[in-house]
Design a protein that fits this description.
The chain is α+β, with helices and mostly antiparallel strands. It contains three helices and eight strands; from the N terminus they run ααββββββββα. Strands 1, 2, 3, 4, 5, 6, 7 and 8 form an eight-stranded antiparallel beta sheet that branches. The longest helix is centred in the N-terminal third of the chain and has 12 residues.
């Protein structure tokens, strides 16, 4: 038998350390969209000059249809440029009402400008106003 099997307390301590190493801190951000709640994960935000990288979450009151499948929420990793007010999506994952993944988009090469009064504007405003350590 290995050391882990002989020492269940050691195994539990290791498991607890691994599972608690990263816990999202979803903070709601203000947005006037009907039936839409937007959150940013404060613990994921990283800064490099005017750029910010981090996760956001969108939750809808009613499911939306994407390629014939219903989705209710999504999480997305974006790279924001606070000076240029642009964004680039690195990952987006949509979930249905049972929290099952219904789609996944990978990294986009294209950088896009963020239109005013949109979910993108709410996200970049919140992310760029955060007080974070620079890396």
């Amino acid at each position: 038998m290995g050391v882990i099997m002989k020492k269940p307390a050691l195994w539990l301590a290791c498991f607890a350390a691994l599972t608690t190493a990263y816990a999202a801190d979803w903070v709601p951000i203000e947005f006037d969209g009907d039936g839409v709640a937007i959150y940013i994960d404060k613990t994921s935000i990283k800064a490099n000059g005017s750029k910010r990288l981090g996760w956001s979450k969108i939750v809808r009151e009613t499911p939306q249809v994407f390629e014939g499948k219903l989705w209710l929420s999504l999480v997305a990793m974006h790279e924001f440029d606070c000076s240029d007010r642009t964004q680039r999506m690195l990952s987006e994952i949509g979930y249905d009402t049972e929290n099952r993944q219904v789609y996944h988009f990978g990294e986009q090469k294209e950088v896009t400008y963020i239109a005013p009064d949109t979910m993108g504007a709410a996200r970049i405003d919140a992310v760029c106003k955060l007080k974070i350590r620079y890396k």
